[in-house]
Model the fold of this input.
Amino acid sequence: MKIYLKFGFLIVAILGTLLWLAMGGISETKTYYKTIAELNQLGDSGKDHRLRVGGDVADSIHRDGREVRFSLTQDKLVLPVVYSGIEPLPDTFKPGAQALADGKLGADGVFHATKIQAKCASKYEAKPIQAPVAAPRASL
Amino acid sequence: MENIAALSVLLAFCFAIYSVLASVIGKLTKRPFLTVSAERAVYSIWVLVTIAAGILIYSLMSGDYRMAYVAHYTNRAMPTIYKYTAWWGGQEGSLLFWNWLLATYGAVVVFKNRRKFREIMPYVIAVMMTTQVFFLTLIVFIESPFKVLMAGKRVIDVGDGQGLSALLQYWTMVIHPPMLYLGYVGFIVPFAFAIGSLIAKQPGEAWIATTRRWTLVTWMFQTTGVLLGAGWAYAVLGWGGYWGWDPVENASLLPWITATAFLHSVMMQEKKGMMKVWNMVLVSATFFLCIFGTFLTRSGIVNSVHAFSQGPIGMYFVVFLSIGIAATVTLIVSRLDFLKSEAQMESVLSRESSFLFNNLVLLASCFAILWGTLFPVISEKFTGEKISVDAPFFNKINIPIALFLLFLTGVGPLIAWRKSSFDSLRRAFLWPTIAGTVVAAGLVALGVRSFYATVSFGLCAFVLVSVAMEFVKGANAIASKDRASFIASVMELTHRNTRRYGGYLVHVGVVIMFIGFTGKAFDQQMTVEISKGDVVALGKYTLRLTDIQVGQNDNYRWQRISVDASKNGEHVGTLEPEKRLYLAKKEPASEVAIRRRPNEDLYINFAGLSDDGERVVLQAYVFPLVSWIWMGYWVVLSGTIICLIPSKSRLIYPRTEVVGISGKHAKV
Done:
């Protein structure tokens, strides 16, 4: 029986350490998904969380040294975003693309992003190739 | 053409259903002809799916732009090789590819075992063909790759297509998906044999012996696939990372982790008859994680940078997974008596125990990654808020696990089976521990302040010395007995027990990879905006922008900059990163320039050009030791191949019980 106790103790110790690390990791990096509409209603308490917000990239993207300024739109709501992360913006990030911005909402209503993800092109459904093309149908 | 292809997959679907029914009914009612006809059906399925795949490839290569798939994923200007890889570039085609690989594995398994395992084979066929039915359902009824473009009732030819995503037009993408899929699909074979032996109540050792090679080969494919993906991310995505804990990357890692755990714990069953239930669980978990990975990539349930388009197929996967898992669990529970362990753990300080902890932390890592990946889904279910966790979460938990595993890698070979005395441990661990401590202390003395990096390098030395000692000890024994040279003795030693010494070589490869991973702690980076002629410094390097060029070819338009790099004042080369705009998809892509050297990579990304074309945003990185990861891979690969070569010892020393390892496995 003693041997099982030893193993039990070691296993609990290892798993306990890992669990503790995991809890720390979650509370450090957890990011709340919000829509632009939800951001506008966010109370002060929410402004401390890391947030992730999605939308379509508006037409003008301004590069200003290392900062990139652009807007995300969703259902006619517009959110100004400043990106100042270290990673380069992905190639798929361009006007009209869907993007996710991670960061915090500033007091000025500008979203300060530290990470931008843009959805990969393979994710887009085919746009109509020629004007009067009906939806593709199976040949069988 | 496309009608023939669609008909082939439909027929294959019917044959697969027939095969499942015929093999099971044939077995239960003892009608061998039915089982044989089920096996023939497996061959026919391969032929039919091959015909369908051949037609799709032909259409892609010849540019049949009447077909939706061809028009969506290729265009005229694409290089031929990428027209071929478009086969797995999109959802429908890659599902066909899955089916083809599965059919191929099925045919090979049936052929290889046509005279063996008559008790298990009907169930093996049934398991594999049930999976085949599921994947054929997807391409026959839901995501057919053989749709044509229609306007009203008329088939139209659009003349040119949209092209393959620019990111996928890179050489590793030619082999990365096939490798990963070979690994994903291949794991069905050990799973099918495990289930077969459970249903037929065959002794556990039979399926393990048969599937040992399969497991190793598929593990090798998975490893290759995962690392090719990492290499692709490093060279293409432009941020210099090779691993971002993206859901899709995680999906490919999960079955790899359980497969690795399985490869280790299966030794416990072979040699000691222990952990039988656990091995069943691991082999099933690996298989279902492979399916789950395919599901995660395609269903869009979690946001990912490189997921396929969201299709309606997610639900089908959920149903298949639930039924499969429920059936497997029921089966294992109903056969618990039959899976009783033949031995007990005797000591915490034993090789058994090192295997146990290896499995424990591997599984913990797997669970943590799965949890982190699904966190948005889980948190939304329970709290109503969609919360995601990020790379730091995964690193925080997986770095200690990885280091602990590295430690066990060094401990495993040195510690005895059953029970080790403190005295023998002290003798065995003396040199490795000295080596590890010296390296760690030396690094601290040199001013390295990263805790994990110091520990990691120390452990690398620890493992290398312990593995080297194993080779030296064994080779010396042979050298003194046979009067052979040391090198010849090492070869002889390895040949006598390829699994053991091949396995050690895999461990050496892993250590080399860890050295590469640890280099991450010393990265340097900068982002600057400069004009032609400007000079910037990064660490020991000075970079001068000498030229900005633009041009165009059939496939893409490009902007290229030339950067002269000098190290410590000495010119080391010109790097030319590029920005491309692929014309068909109007999609931009960056081509980074990398100067790869064993000690460090200089990595330059051309991040952007100002509107007047004068100022360049340049990102430069120094990544120490990254090349060691790719070098380590080759060592892992050679080690795995050595494991696959049959041991000589099987013929020379049958049934030696003394040495434990080299003796006991000889009887199979």
Summary: Confidence is low (pLDDT under 50) at residues 121-140 of chain A. Residues 31-121 of chain A form a domain with the OB fold (Dihydrolipoamide Acetyltransferase, E2P) fold (CATH 2.40.50.140).
